[in-house]
């Protein structure tokens, strides 16, 4: 039972200023007098009428090309200039004008190890976007991984090339290139030369659980813009749903991000993982997830410039418990050790759903990739990648051989020495990552931020 108390004041007394509450229980904006009493607002603020709240609020001036400092504010054009106002109250066209977001989903979260915890809220639980009640295409249409666009030759995920070192107990990339792969003749696509400089190739990798549509899809376009805005060479995709999930639908999604890129996508999954790549995907497949039934771990072997190939594993771990996530990590490590040649590069990345960097799964992953910081951050120095920016959900973890070639992510005038956590609410100026819009990272069903790392890899 909820008891609500109302206080009523009579007479000519002035009512106290009331803070406008935020969803998380905090406050930011305060009431002000329409007569413009100087004491109402702080320096740099103006008293404006916000129609959605039907009241006058003190709002901070802002740069139209930059995000507001507070994650629950957007820079909106108003009378007399641009001001930071509560998200969703901007009187100008919405940042994602034309997108038809679903108002949200209902459904009971699945209990047990087969639940999906991928679209979790920031407290680690499900958000009503649980997969038990969703109705995406669960693999009935041809899978993108089995019929990729021209040049991709994935297999079913069980037969790796003759160079597989079965049972090796070393890091998949610790051998520093003394045994180049036999397939060293690289058939580069048109985009390869653009990233190659003096015998080195810059490889930008992005972890992307950026679905914001109904049934955890990329249809509304927020995630598409976020990926396109940072121009990655390889994208580790989670919740890789689009349209009716047919090959043509997924190809349409990929072409919106980067026309002509190769892609693979796991089969028979409700919220599939997958890979998008500038360079040809030589093989691809999926390794079983021992703790969930609606997705597996999607891997791809990519023909990057140079004699060594790059293996990437796109993962989406459970939110249910740290022990389940560690069991999933153990399964991945076991597959890496038996399938990935020691002289190839390796990256494991995606949505780990981890609450902190001390979780046991990081120690497990450390057997084949590096997990130590410093970690990617946003413009404000935050490493959190969940919606509330307080948990390190999403990661890109490279083996030692690949990690030693990591370099700062440079976009326009911005430099991120250890990699970027992409949040449209904090990135400034947004013009550097066009077509990203300020509201993309706070779209209704968006639960994660993208993560970007760059590697300057020798092409010899």
UniProtKB/TrEMBL annotation:
Endonuclease/exonuclease/phosphatase domain: residues covered: 225-411
Keyword terms, alphabetized: Endonuclease, Exonuclease, Hydrolase, Nuclease
Keyword Iron on entry: no
Biased composition (Acidic residues): 98-108, 118-158
Keyword flag Nuclease: yes
Region (Disordered): 94-201, 372-391
SUPFAM superfamilies on file: DNase I-like
InterPro entries for the chain: Endo/exonu/phosph_ase_sf, Endo/exonuclease/phosphatase
Biased composition (Low complexity): 159-178
One matching Pfam family: Exo_endo_phos
GO molecular function (one): endonuclease activity
Name listed for the protein in its UniProt record: Endonuclease/exonuclease/phosphatase family
Protein's organism: Pseudomyxococcus hansupus
